[in-house]
Amino acid sequence: MSFEQQVIVRRKRLVAERILEIELVARDASLLAPFSAGAHIDVRLGENIVRQYSLCNSPSERDRYLLGVQLETASRGGSRALHELSEGAILDVSKPRNRFPLAEDRSHSVLIAGGIGITPLLSMAEQLVCEAMPFDLHYCVRTRAAVAFKERIFSGPILEATNLYVSDELGLSKFDAEALFHRTLPERSNFYICGPFGFIEHVLKAAASCGVDKSRLHREHFHIDPVLTTDTTVRTFTVKLARSELSVVVNERETIIDALASIGVDVPVSCEQGVCGTCLTTVLSGEPDHRDVYLTDDEKRLNNCLTPCCSRSKSLTLTLDL
Ligand code: FES
């Protein structure tokens, strides 16, 4: 993983309950690497802590990156470290990468955000405004205090495209994903969904039941459902390393990454949740038990690679190209 840019935290401000907007500028005051709507950067927050954050400003801005960072109650160091940073702190960050871009067909876009999932979608909304392309933004939050970036959403050109759903509030209509897919013309629209795992799964299920073509659905996960990482059926298995001829037993309470580290083999990691693909490793034999959301279903079926930060093994032995 490379960190090609050094940035300074120019400003931090609270934009909703537990959500900080963090403004980063180049340390040497130069222009930052360009990005497209939906892109993210890797941020190094310590020796072994790297996290991805979506850029939430308009791609037309080259002098700054804006992040929206929610303080997670179960933070493993990422969001807490960023919340505790002082203005003036220096960070190493990667160039932006985009695994959640706007499709070429922008004749109508539907942006569906759950909570902090608003961050890349806000950048997309501003891009679509710049291009004068039609879109709708559906923004779902639990409480009004959780509504972030109010001044950009509710007073700018995005306002008339925005539908806000506050689940704890009476009087506001509730978000109904199926009704949305029924009343939008799915064959003419591209849908962009971002938020917690459960939210995305709910929306995708509604899309499937309405027969929406998968090629029109684009998503970005923020968190993995705990069910994927606290499975009580996990078993012990052995990992063999073909190149170094080492092997290690992975017990029920550790990840493949942990077990490899115990014999001195470090695999680069970032999200440690099966989201980013940083740890992707080639499998030479054995049957992986894929627990990530990075690989597509087709890629998982090939069983020729796995994400050792969260995936396990269905076979008693797994041989990796390490
Ligand atoms: Fe992100 Fe493994 S570290 S998928």
**Strand line-up of the largest beta sheet:** 4-3-6-1-2-5
> Domains counted in the coordinates: how many?
3
The CATH top-level class label of the largest domain: Alpha Beta
What is the approximate shape? globular
Fraction of residues in helices? 10-25%
Which molecules are bound besides the chains?
Answer: FE2/S2 (inorganic) cluster
Distance N terminus to C terminus? Answer: 17 Å
Major sheet characteristics: 6 strands, antiparallel
Strand content: 25-35%
Q: Tell me the total number of β-strands.
A: 18
Supply the number of helical segments.
8
Gyration radius, in Å: 21 Å
CATH topology type of the largest domain: Rossmann fold
Helix/sheet category: alpha/beta
Instruction: Indicate the low-confidence ranges by residue numbers.
Output: 225-230
Return the string of H and E elements: EEEEEHEEHEHEHEHEHEEHEEHEEE
For CATH, the homologous superfamily of the largest domain is named as Nucleotide-binding domain of ferredoxin-NADP reductase (FNR) module
Tell me which CATH architecture of the largest domain applies here. Answer: 3-Layer(aba) Sandwich
